[in-house]
């Protein structure tokens, strides 16, 4: 049972990374992965919308903020392993690569895919976020107190 | 008698051909790419996503190009496209407390934990035209400092700890979706929030400004304004668990307003809330002020008859696509309607002339 939870957490992490990953970089890493398997579509890539929600006051009742585009697909490898993808945007190529990576991560190829695709992709996303955080930090105000008139 | 007429097809085709040529402009000037619009006119892209109610920067950039920079026309294109998308589901509410903030300021607490982070702002610029931008040049390197790894806490949390501000208790009521169910009045606060977040920036701004000038005055401070990225999480039925399906840039504004108390309750500040797609802070602040003004009844305030307190007035006029659709339709052919009015006026004039002639004859 504990293993199952850990497996779900790991799958959730890679699927989330693939969903948010920049398309160009993901496709570049996927193109360089030369062991791409054959597959059958269970559900061909389809673009759609999801309604994004917020909460009033950040913590209160939910409300509908607006939609975002998402592309989803499902496929199966020759050995029957099923891969799913829900990725941001309208790119069918990105959804296909994400579903294949999701499937491969459930096979013996997992360590290889992790090392050659997911790890570099994760590093790239983390680097971009930390560059932005570093630029934001440089715009943080340092206050200093002026000498008060009544102290003179 | 109603006479159907047909015609103008050639004129319409030719008008659209000329529109395409005018859109392209002088051929000796390089054509704009979608990526250029997305990257270099990003605040226009953000407005189109917010009011088009669809987060997709590439589509918003395409709409801006197609509309020749007419943002309301671009919003119209996005709204029309949006209706063609199958709806895959609803996300979990985003956690703005986990936002990766580019900007985070408070006008109420100088020393707020997390600090005053200005981000890429127009504030404190001199609003003088920068002619260097008319020439080509490499951007200067941006200074960096030690970035914050942990999330930045919400400022209202500190007031809430001392019970000095109304809390926003967690609630999981399924919100009404105005894209699926028609608006009805009275509307609850969640429904109003959906209409305001996609409402016209100019309209919501002007209403917010009217509250500052004294129409439904409720004296707002910007308790916190934050802009940054948040993850969007959704339950995936075929998996049986939730994953992040993407990330969106949001602007969130929380206002701290006029307090109230009673014999039984100690004085407490009240709140207004704005949350909008993209870097859209004028809109988010405006939304928070209008949200607060519309809460007058719930907070036991007087109806001062101010426009910003009138829910039906605000919500039925804040949508610029509804507004422009009705406004602009009057330029389209109304030949038959007008013909009947013309007939009526002619008849009345004839009757008046006959009556005058009869009076004259009688004298």
Record the SSE blueprint:
The complex is a heterodimer of chains A (152) and B (363).
Chain A: H1 2-20, H2 23-32, E1 39-55, E2 62-77, E3 82-88, H3 92-104, H4 110-138
Antiparallel strand pairs in A: 1-2, 2-3
Helix pairs in contact in A: 2-3, 2-4
Chain B: H1 9-24, H2 34-40, H3 42-52, E1 54-55, H4 57-66, H5 71-82, E2 87-93, E3 100-105, H6 156-161, H7 189-197, H8 201-212, E4 221-236, E5 241-260, E6 268-277, H9 281-294, H10 311-317, H11 320-329, H12 335-362
Antiparallel strand pairs in B: 3-4, 4-5, 5-6
Protein name (chain B): Carbon-phosphorus lyase complex subunit PhnI
Region (Disordered) (chain B): 169-188
Pfam family, one (chain B): PhnI
Descriptive account of the structure:
Chain B: Residues 169-188 are annotated as: Disordered. Chain B: InterPro entries: PhnI. Chain A is α+β, with helices and mostly antiparallel strands and 152 residues long. Chain A has one domain. Helix content of chain A is 47%, strand content 26%. Chain A is built from four helices and three strands; from the N terminus they run ααβββαα. Chain A has a three-stranded antiparallel β-sheet. In chain A, a hairpin with a 4-residue loop joins β2 and β3 (82-88). The N and C termini of chain A lie far apart (72 Å). The model of chain A has no long low-confidence stretch (mean pLDDT 94). By secondary structure, chain B is an alpha+beta fold. Chain B has a four-stranded antiparallel β-sheet. Chains A and B meet through α1, β1, β2, β3 and α4 of A and β1, β2, β3, α7 and β4 of B.
Short overview:
The complex is a heterodimer of chains A (152) and B (363). Chain A is α+β, with helices and mostly antiparallel strands and 152 residues long.
């Amino acid at each position: 049972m504990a293993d199952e939870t850990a497996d779900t957490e790991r799958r959730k992490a890679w699927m989330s990374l693939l969903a948010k990953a920049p398309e160009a970089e993901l496709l570049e890493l996927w193109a360089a992965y030369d062991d791409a398997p054959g597959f059958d579509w269970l559900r061909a890539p389809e673009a759609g919308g999801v309604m994004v929600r917020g909460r009033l006051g950040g913590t209160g009742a939910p409300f509908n903020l607006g939609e975002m585009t998402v592309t989803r697909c499902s496929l199966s490898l020759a050995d029957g392993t099923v891969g799913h993808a829900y990725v941001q945007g309208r790119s069918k190529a990105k959804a296909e690569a994400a579903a294949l990576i999701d499937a491969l991560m459930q096979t013996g190829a997992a360590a290889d895919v992790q090392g050659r695709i997911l790890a570099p992709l994760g590093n790239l996303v983390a680097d971009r976020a930390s560059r932005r955080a570093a630029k934001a930090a440089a715009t943080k105000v340092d206050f200093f107190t002026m000498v008060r008139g009544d102290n003179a | 008698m109603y006479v159907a007429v047909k015609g103008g097809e050639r004129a319409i085709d030719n008008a659209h051909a000329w529109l395409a040529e005018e859109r392209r402009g002088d051929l000796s000037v390089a054509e704009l790419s979608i990526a250029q619009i997305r990257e270099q006119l990003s605040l226009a892209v953000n407005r189109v996503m917010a009011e088009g109610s669809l987060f997709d920067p590439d589509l918003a950039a395409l709409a801006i190009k197609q509309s020749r920079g007419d943002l309301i026309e671009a919003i119209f294109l996005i709204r029309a496209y949006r209706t063609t998308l199958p709806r895959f589901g609803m996300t979990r509410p985003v956690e703005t407390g986990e936002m990766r903030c580019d900007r985070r300021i408070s006008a109420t607490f100088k020393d707020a934990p997390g600090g005053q982070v200005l981000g890429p702002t127009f504030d404190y610029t001199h609003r003088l035209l920068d002619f260097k931008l008319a020439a080509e040049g490499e951007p200067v390197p941006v200074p960096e400092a030690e970035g914050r790894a942990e999330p930045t806490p919400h400022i209202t949390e500190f007031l809430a700890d001392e019970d000095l501000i109304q809390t926003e208790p967690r609630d999981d009521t399924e919100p009404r979706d105005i894209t699926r169910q028609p608006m009805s009045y009275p509307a609850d606060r969640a429904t109003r929030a959906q209409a305001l977040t996609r409402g016209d920036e100019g309209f919501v701004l002007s209403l917010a400004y009217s509250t500052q000038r004294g129409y439904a005055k409720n004296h707002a401070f910007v308790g916190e304004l934050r802009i940054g990225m948040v993850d969007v999480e959704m339950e995936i039925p075929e998996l049986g668990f939730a994953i992040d399906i993407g990330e969106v840039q949001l602007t969130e504004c929380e206002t701290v307003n006029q307090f109230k108390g009673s014999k039984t309750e100690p004085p407490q500040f009240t709140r207004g809330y704005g949350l909008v797609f993209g870097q859209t802070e004028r809109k988010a602040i405006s939304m928070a002020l209008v949200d607060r003004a519309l809460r007058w009844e719930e907070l036991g305030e007087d109806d001062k008859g101010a426009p910003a307190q009138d829910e039906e007035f605000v919500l039925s006029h804040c949508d610029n696509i509804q507004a422009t659709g009705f406004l602009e339709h009057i330029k389209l052919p109304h030949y038959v309607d007008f013909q009947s009015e013309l007939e009526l006026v002619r008849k009345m004039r004839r009757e008046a002339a006959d009556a005058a002639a009869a009076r004259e004859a009688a004298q």
